[in-house]
Amino acid sequence: MAANDGEEEATVSLVDVLEEDEELENEASAVLGGSDSEKCSYPEGYVKRQALYACNTCTPKGGEPAGICLACSYKCHEGHDLFELYTKRNFRCDCGNDKFGEMECKLFADKEKVNSGNKYSHNFFGLYCTCDRPYPDPEDEVPDEMIQCIVCEDWFHGRHLGCVVPDCVELQEMICESCMNKTPFLWSYAAHIAVPPMTKVSPCKGEEDVEVENDEEEKKIKNENPRSPVDEKVQVNGTSACKRKHQEEAEGSSEEGSCAGCRLREMKASGRSRTLQGAVFWLSAWRTKLCTCSNCKVLYTDAGVSFLMDEMDTVLAYENKGKSTMQAEQAGGAEGRDPLMSALNNLNRVQQLEIIHEYNDMKTELKDYLQRFAAEGKVVTPEDIRHFFEQQQSRKRRRANAGQYYCS
C-alpha cells in the first residue's frame, strides 16, 4: 500500500507482476503448446483438440461463423480483430475457404469450400454464456469467473449456471444444464459420481429460501412442502430459474444399458437421485466410472457424446501435452525457434551451467529484494532497480577477484 493525499492506494509490487506473468505464460504454453504455430492444421483433418480463433475482421457477426487454427492466426490474420476461443474438439481449420470470400490461406491453399463436420456457436462471434455477452464485458461490473462446459464447449458465468459453483473447480469438469437435458441419462450418473449439488430452493409464492446441500435434505424439504417441482423456483447467486420436471425424460429409455453388468442400469435401479436442474460438476476421473457396455456405447454415440469415454479428450490432457512439448523444446529441441536457447546450446557444458546458475540466482535475489518493498508497502522506483543491478555487478566482481573456478 502507498499513501497519496491522505488516502491509501493499492499498489502491485514487481514480484506480483513477475509471478502473475510467469503463471500466465505457463497457462498460455499449456494451451498453445499442443498446437503447431508454424503449419496450418487443415491437412490433419478434424483435429481431436486444438487452440482456435475466430476473425471478426474477416467473418464478422451477421455472416457465417468460421474458425482458424493457431498458425493461421499468426500468418494469415496478423493485425486482425481476433476472438480467442481457447480450445475446441474435432475441428478443421476454415481459413481461406468460402466463408472468407476472396481471401486465401497463405499456409495451405487447396482447401474444401466448407468443413461440414465443424460445429459452431455464438462463441465464434465473441459471445458467451446464456446471457449472450462478450468477454471481457465492459458493461458487466460483477466480477465473475467463466467456466467451460465440456459438451457444448460454451463458456458460462458462474452466476448463470443455475447452481452453486464448488471450490477447486479447476480440478473438475462441468456440463451445463442444457447439455444435461439433451443427454438425460447423465442425470443418473450425476446422482452417484458428480459433485453433490448445493442450491437454494424457494417456492414461487415467496416462502423462505432453504439451502439444499444433499439429496436427503432435499427429500425432507419436499416431504414437508409437497409442491410440484414445476411450481418451484431455484434461487442462485441472485438469479432465478423455474425448475423443470426431468424425471420422465431421464428415465425415458428404459432399455438403454439393459445388458448384464451395466453400470448405468445398476445406478438407475439403486433409486438414488438428485436435483434435476442446474449445471453439474464432476469429480476427478469421473469418466472412468462411465459404463462402456455395448448398449451404453450406442447410447453415447446417438447422443453425440462418445468423446466422454476418451480420457484423453479432456482439456487437462491437452494442456499436459502442451507442457510436455514445451519442456521437450526447452531441453534442446527448439534451437531453431529460440535464439536464446540456440546461443546457450553453442556454449560448452561449463559455460551453460554457469549461466543457468547465475540466472536462477539473480531471479531468486530479485524476488527477495522486491518482496521487501511489498512487505513494507513501498513503491519500487527506477533508482531501486538500478541499485539492485549495481549490487549484482559488485558481487560478480568480488567473486571474480576471489578466483572462483569450475572443473571441466
TrEMBL record:
SMART domains: ZnF_UBR1. It comes from the Eukaryota. Residues 217-232 have a biased composition (Basic and acidic residues). Residues 38-110 form the UBR-type domain. Its EC number is 2.3.2.27. The keyword Zinc applies. A zinc finger (UBR-type) spans 38-110. It catalyses: S-ubiquitinyl-[E2 ubiquitin-conjugating enzyme]-L-cysteine + [acceptor protein]-L-lysine = [E2 ubiquitin-conjugating enzyme]-L-cysteine + N(6)-ubiquitinyl-[acceptor protein]-L-lysine. GO terms for cellular component: cytoplasm. Pfam families: zf-UBR. Residues 204-232 are annotated as: Disordered. It is an enzyme of class 2 (transferase). GO terms for molecular function: ubiquitin protein ligase activity; zinc ion binding. PROSITE patterns: ZF_UBR. Pathway: Protein modification; protein ubiquitination. Keywords: Isopeptide bond, Metal-binding, Phosphoprotein, Transferase, Ubl conjugation, Ubl conjugation pathway, Zinc, Zinc-finger. InterPro entries: UBR7, UBR7-like_UBR-box, Znf_FYVE_PHD, Znf_RING/FYVE/PHD, Znf_UBR. E3 ubiquitin-protein ligase which is a component of the N-end rule pathway. Recognizes and binds to proteins bearing specific N-terminal residues that are destabilizing according to the N-end rule, leading to their ubiquitination and subsequent degradation. PANTHER family: E3 UBIQUITIN-PROTEIN LIGASE UBR7. This is Putative E3 ubiquitin-protein ligase UBR7. The lineage of its organism: Eukaryota, Metazoa, Chordata, Craniata, Vertebrata. The gene is LOC107583822.
